[in-house]
Predict the 3D structure of the following.
Amino acid sequence: MGIRVRFAPSPTGYLHIGGARTALYNYLFARHNNGKFILRIEDTDEVRSTKESVDAILKGMKFLGLDYDEGPFINKKGEIEEKGNFGPYFQTQRIFLYKDFVDKLLKEGKAYKCYCTVEELAKKRELSNLEKRPPKYDNHCRHLTHDQILNYEKEGRKPVIRFFNDGLGETKFNDIIKGEISFNNSLLDDFVIVKSSGIPIYNFAVVLDDALMEISHVIRGDDHVSNTPRQIMLYKAMGLKIPEFAHIPMILGGDGARLSKRHGATSVLAYKDMGYLSEALVNYLSLLGWSTSDSQQIFKFNELIEKFDLYRCNSSAAIFDNKKLDWMNGEYIRSKTKDEFFELAVIELEKSGLITREKAIEKKAELEKILSLEHEKVKHLTEIPELYDFMLLDEINYNEKDAEKVFKKDPVNTKKILVEINEEMKKIGNFSAENIEKLFREYSEKNNIKTSLIFHPVRVATSGRAKGPSLFHYMEILGKEKVMSRINKTLSKYFN
Ligand code: GLU
Ligand code: ZN
C-alpha cells in the first residue's frame, strides 16, 4: 500500500502555527515518499465550526504553498470545491458512511445504546468525586432488558452509543516519534462514540475516516496521544487496518508555556500580514521539531522535501523563537533577485499609497535603484514603505527627534555648513556618489570640520531622519535638484 497522510484540522479558528507545522510535516513526508497528502475538515463540532475558519484554513494552506492531492479547495469562482476519490472531505458530510459500522458494532455487542440523561450522568460523576473515584461511566446500560429499553424510548430519551470496553489488557503502539506507548485498558471507560444527535464523536469519526481514506500514517500533534488508545481499540473492534502513528511534540513560547495568543500572533495569515515570506515561514516551521544531522538552517523548498525525515523528529517540545524567524525572513528577502524584490516591494508600496503599480512599472529602472539601497536590510516586507518613503515623497517627513538632535546642537555652525555645502554642490557636473563624496571630503579638509558634522545634518536635511542608507548613494539617486531644494527647505524650516 502506498503512503497516504492527512492534515485534519477542526474549523474552529484560523490556521495557527501549530497546525501549519503539522500540515507541513504531513506534506513533506508525503512528498518525500511519493505519497499522497490529503486535507480533511473535521467539522463535527456543530457549535464551534465556522465557514470563516474553513476559508482561513484553505487560504493559509495556499499561502504556505502546501498543495494537497485530495480535499476541499477554493475554486476560481471563490467557491469551495473538492478533489479526490475518497470524499467527501468534510466530516459532517461523511456521517452516512458511518451507519453500517455502528450497526455492526451494535449487532456484535461491541457497542450499545446508553439512555442515561445528562443529569443522571452528572449526578454519578458528583458521587464518584465525593468518593474520590475516577469519574468513569458505571456501565449502567450495558445489559438493559428489552422492557427497560422500551420504557426509555417511551419516555422520549435519545440514546448515545457507547463502545463496550472490557477493560482487559493494554493497548500498545509504537509511535514513530515517541517510541513505544502503552495504556492500561482498565483506565478507560465505555466511551461514547455517537452523540444522541446522531453525530459521531471525534475518536470514532477519525478512525473511520482514516481507514476509509486508506491513511497509512497519522502524523499529528501530541495532544492526541491520549486519544490514540481509544482509536486503536476501535480499529481492532471493527477489524480495520491500524495506521502508523507519529505524534509531533508541541510548540512552546519563549517563556516555556504552550504557544498561544499571549505570545503574539499565532495565525499563519497574520504572519503574512506582518511581512513574512511563506518560504521563510515554511523553512522556520520545518525546524520546529526536526533537524538534519549537520543542523542545516536554510533549505530550498525541494531540499526540504528531499531531506525531511519523520524518524529524526524530536520527541521533546520545540520553542518558537521570533528572533530566529526574523533572521530567516531577512535571509530569504536578501536572497531575492532584483526583479523578485521589485515585485514584493511594489505590493507594499502600493498598499501604503506611496506609488501606484502603473507608476512603479513605468519607472522601474529608477525604482530598482532606489530599492537596492536598502534591500539588504529588510527583515519584514512591511518595513518597506517606511524605509523608502523619503526617496519617493516630494515632501519629506522630518523625524522631529532627529531634527532636534542634529540641528539644535550647534545651530549657527550647522546652518553655515548647510548653506556652504549647498553652494558647493552647484559646482558638481556629474552628480554621482563618488563626486559628492569627494566634494564633501574636500570641504571638510579645507574648513577643518569633522566629516560627521557635515554628514549628519545633510542626511537629516535631505531624508528627514538620522538613519538610512549610504548617504552619497541616495543623494545621487535623488539628484542634485531635489537634494538642494530639500536643504533649502530645511534651512527655512529649522534655521530662521
Ligand atoms: N481535528 C483534530 C484537531 O484539529 C485533529 C485530529 C487528528 O489529526 O487526528 O485537533
Ligand atoms: Zn447509560
